[in-house]
Design a protein that fits this description.
Structural class: mainly beta
Number of domains: 4
Distance between the termini: 154 Å
Oligomer: single chain
Length: 479
């Protein structure tokens, strides 16, 4: 009986030892794990869970990832629990997990592959504020609250630019899209819309009275704007009556204006419209009627030349004739110029033409000049007959006057025969104008297809000279 007892004790010990070796308490049935399933959202930042069958099975876990669904899977270091939090390095990869049974469960079962892991999404940034540029049309506006992880663009643009930490500067007014930039594991976020407002322009509220002598030929100045320092564009206006409807004066857009003869007896106002940081439009009080200015021969005209003729009153838009202060001289010693010829064509058999600029009276020089320039353009022939030469020049008397500019005045022309004679009588004879005392001066009056009227300024005699002759040229204008 003692021996049998000892044997029974030995068997019990053996069974206990076997249970310890195989990890199962004595008397428990070993159950294999048959299924391993992954559940969860397959996006960076989310969690996946391994679920065995049977659900109560215990075991150890190892998670793996792979570049391709059917590729070689590598163990993810430290991923040994039943759940796994997806990280940026998993983006675009596939995940599996292996469960190895413990205690009363046996077997090692690997799950099927997950879907491809998607990038995480990013929310639109918050706490952003747009600040206006410090001047109208400026580009020093800003968006505050940005970080270096963000990017921005004008809503109308297509490309984003990296933002800077704290604030993003150098911005013009407009609506901007700001978002978190794409990074490994995360797509670019939703964009927040941020308005960088326009600079709030300052209104011009008043303009003081026009200053200066209200007379033909005297400069007037627009009044002072309120607030002080305001900037504006100007438009001078004119009316026959002080309380009537004022019309813009063509080209009178500076802060100053000098009335001309046709302004006599009329009233002026100036309109100022804010520019730059200033807005609004204000109109000055009217001036008194523009007083007549009577010029006499030798007075300085509006263009800085010398007045040499007064016809007594305004008609056809003018009253006075003014001569340029000096002859037209090109580079170097080129002080003499031809009248030039017009031809039917540019061949050697062409016929020389009479342009028709034959008027001689006072007041016809402008029309003569226009006719000559229209006919010859930039190609006045230098010789009378085509068989002599087909060479041309743009530097002929009428065109030189038509192109002449003095003190911004561009309305010059070659004087007619009688206008040239007035130059001699009223300026040259009095020692004014610096005229040459040798040679002759061209008029715009044609005598024939091959000749035009000239005047000798040493004697005052007038005669007809060949159009290929070289003479002095003095431009005049009417006002």
């Amino acid at each position: 009986m003692k021996v049998l007892h000892l044997r029974n004790v030995s068997l019990v010990l053996i069974v206990l030892l076997l249970g310890l070796v195989i990890g199962c308490p004595p008397g428990l049935e070993i159950t294999p794990i048959t299924v391993n399933t992954i559940t969860g959202t397959e996006t960076v930042g989310e969690s996946l869970t391994a679920t065995p069958t049977p659900a109560a099975a215990t075991g150890t876990y190892q998670w793996y990832n792979s570049e391709t669904e059917a590729g070689l899977y590598s163990a993810i270091i430290g991923a040994t629990s039943s759940t796994y939090n997806l990280v940026a390095a998993d983006a675009g990869k596939y995940i599996k997990v292996t469960i190895t049974g413990t205690n009363a469960y046996s077997g090692a079962v690997t799950s099927g592959a997950s879907g491809q892991i998607a990038n995480a999404s990013q929310l639109a940034p918050t706490g952003l504020t747009g600040e206006a540029p410090t001047s109208f049309g400026g580009s020093d506006g800003k968006i505050t609250g940005t970080t270096a992880a963000m990017e921005y663009k004008l809503s109308s643009d297509s490309d984003y630019t990296d933002a800077t930490a704290g604030e993003t500067t150098g911005l013009a007014a407009g609506t901007y899209d700001v978002r978190y930039a794409a990074i490994v594991g995360s797509d670019a976020g939703d964009a927040a819309s941020v308005d960088v407002p326009e600079f709030e322009r300052i209104s011009i509220t008043a303009i003081s009275a026009i200053s200066g002598t209200v007379m033909v030929g005297e400069e007037l100045t627009a009044g002072t704007l309120t607030p002080s320092g305001a900037t504006a564009d100007y438009q001078w206006t004119i009316c026959d009556t002080v309380g009537g409807s004022y019309a813009d004066i063509n080209g009178a857009t500076a802060g100053t204006y000098t009335p001309v003869v046709v302004d006599e007896g009329k009233f002026l106002k100036v309109v100022a419209t804010g520019t730059g940081n200033y807005s609004g439009t204000v109109t000055s009080a009217a001036t008194s009627a523009v007083a007549e200015k009577v010029y006499v021969a030798g007075d300085t005209g509006p263009a800085g030349g010398l007045v040499f003729y007064d016809k007594g009153s305004v008609s056809d838009g003018w009253r006075y004739l003014e001569a340029a202060s000096s002859d037209i001289v090109l580079d170097g010693p080129d002080a003499l110029h031809i009248y030039g010829y017009s031809r039917t064509d540019s061949t050697s058999s062409a016929t020389t033409l009479l342009v028709g600029a034959t008027a001689t009276a006072v007041g016809t020089g402008q029309a003569n000049t226009t006719a000559l320039v229209t006919a010859m353009g930039s190609n006045a022939y230098e010789q009378l007959f085509a068989f002599q030469s087909t060479s041309t020049t743009a530097n002929y008397a009428a065109k030189l006057c038509d192109d002449f500019v003095a003190d911004t005045f561009e309305d010059w022309f070659l004087p007619s025969k009688e206008e040239l004679d007035l130059l001699y009588d009223n300026l040259k004879s009095n020692g004014w104008g610096g005229f040459a005392t040798t040679g002759f001066y061209w008029s715009s009056s044609e005598a024939a297809s091959g000749s035009a009227s000239v005047q000798m300024f040493d004697s005052g005699n007038q005669q007809n000279n060949d159009k290929s002759s070289s003479g002095h040229v003095r431009a005049i204008r009417s006002f």
